[in-house]
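Translate structure to sequence.
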């Protein structure tokens, strides 16, 4: 399990503008139970190279990525790049090796969310 550093940064991913041929992102989650509020994330557990379990708001969520996200296993921090309050498919989690994810030998990996599922209690 990993604990989040005190500064969880929520940013708009890639400028937040969809191209003309791209479908628009939904403005809310279809199922309120599956809403992972970005600022409520308390930590994560690495499952495998394409899957983690997020903890937040007293619930757990299985998050799958489009491609392997190896830094999720080794990173100390995560930054959320989201288009809204709830994490959605297409949003990005950026895992880093340093608290501030900047220079000085630190590195980061951008992981695009493929799916999010509520884990039953």
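Result:
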């Amino acid at each position: 399990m990993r604990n989040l550093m005190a500064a969880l940064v929520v940013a708009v991913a890639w400028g937040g503008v969809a191209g003309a041929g791209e479908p628009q992102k939904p403005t809310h989650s279809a199922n309120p139970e599956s809403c992972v509020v970005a600022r409520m994330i308390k930590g994560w557990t690495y499952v495998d190279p394409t899957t983690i379990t997020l903890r937040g708001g007293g619930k757990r969520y299985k998050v799958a990525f489009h491609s392997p996200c190896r830094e999720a296993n080794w990173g100390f921090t995560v930054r959320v790049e989201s288009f809204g309050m709830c994490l959605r498919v297409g949003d990005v989690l950026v895992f880093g090796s340093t608290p501030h994810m900047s220079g000085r030998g630190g590195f980061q990996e951008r992981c695009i969310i493929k799916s999010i599922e509520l884990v039953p209690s």
